[in-house]
Write a structure and sequence with these properties.
- There is one protein chain.
- By secondary structure, this protein is α/β, with parallel strands linked by helices.
- Helices cover 37% and strands 15% of the residues.
- The protein has one domain: Alpha-Beta Barrel (TIM Barrel).
- Strands 1-2-3-4-5-6-7-8 form an 8-stranded parallel beta barrel, surrounded by 7 helices.
- Helix 1 runs parallel beside helix 10, helix 7 runs parallel beside helix 8 and helix 9 runs parallel beside helix 10.
- The structure holds phosphoenolpyruvate (PEP).
- Phosphoenolpyruvate binds next to strand 8.
- The site of phosphoenolpyruvate has 14 residues, from strand 8.
């Protein structure tokens, strides 16, 4: 029997975090030029800071480079100064939104927003209502990995963050070990493989056959030099890329892992 994951079209999504002003959108234009010369078998998205979402979408790269936001509020509108709703992102031209990134789940002392999985679930529901696709991030701290709690932590985040109404068309999971983000460290192939297999099992248990078709990205210090090895791991259906998505050449080098 062929594995249902064989048919999954991978996604390589860039997360620009709080980087980039209008001038940096030239990197997306350069990325487009790179991609025009390549044959590759994955979807590509750039999740820009909220200030750039509209301008990025207006570059009209369509399905070739899809536009995403990096967070949305759970409410449609209201007294939430400084926040952006899923409807607003959609209106600005976004197709995707990242929810539950570890930098937002982290507490305020560590520069985050203390977002719980319950909040993440509400944001995903808001994204669904606005017809945005969510990339939901899960991942363990280094202390949790050292304590042997990785699968337990990731399993709980997944269970509590995902609404029952998820479908493969509107959500993507990103496994991002917190200690691998921006650190240059990557887990071993065996470590990634074990977590992705665990996530796949949990998705199939909860959602049945559609759970077998949901994309599971790996994120954490992915770069052109390690992308091919990481993207070949079973149940790794693409990448969420931070630092290396800021430069067109590096990002294209990662997408090249799916070159045909
Ligand atoms: C991220 O922020 O989602 C990420 C994976 O960052 P980096 O690629 O820089 O580790």
């Amino acid at each position: 029997m062929t594995s249902p994951t064989k048919k999954i079209k991978p996604l390589v999504a860039g997360n620009w975090k709080m980087n980039g002003t209008g001038a940096d959108l030239r990197e997306v234009r350069r990325l487009h030029t790179h991609l025009s010369k390549m044959k590759y078998g994955c979807d590509v998205a750039v999740c820009a800071p909220a200030t750039l979402v509209h301008r990025l979408a207006a570059m009209k790269f369509g399905a070739k480079i899809m536009t995403g936001g990096q967070d949305c509020h759970a409410a449609e509108k209201g007294a939430h100064t400084g926040d952006v709703s899923a409807e607003m992102l959609k209106d600005a031209g976004a197709k995707w939104v990242i929810v539950g990134h570890s930098e937002r789940r982290a507490d305020v002392k560590r520069g985050g927003h203390g977002e719980t999985s319950k909040i993440v679930r509400e944001k995903m529901l808001a994204a669904q209502k606005a017809e945005l696709r969510s990339i939901v991030c899960v991942g363990e701290l280094l202390s949790e990995r050292k304590a042997g709690d990785t699968l337990k932590v990731v399993g709980a985040q997944l269970r509590q963050s995902l609404p029952d109404t998820c479908s493969a068309a509107d959500i993507v999971i990103a496994y991002e070990p917190v200690w691998a983000i921006g650190s240059g460290l990557t887990p071993s192939v065996e470590q990634i493989s074990a977590v992705h297999a665990h996530i796949r099992k949990a998705l199939v248990r909860r959602f049945g056959t559609p759970g077998g078709a949901m994309r599971i990205l790996y994120g954490g210090s992915v770069k052109p030099s390690n992308a091919s090895e990481l993207m070949m791991i079973k149940d790794v259906n693409g990448a969420l890329v931070g630092g290396a998505s800021l430069k067109a050449q590096d990002f294209a080098g990662i997408i090249a892992a799916y070159q045909r």
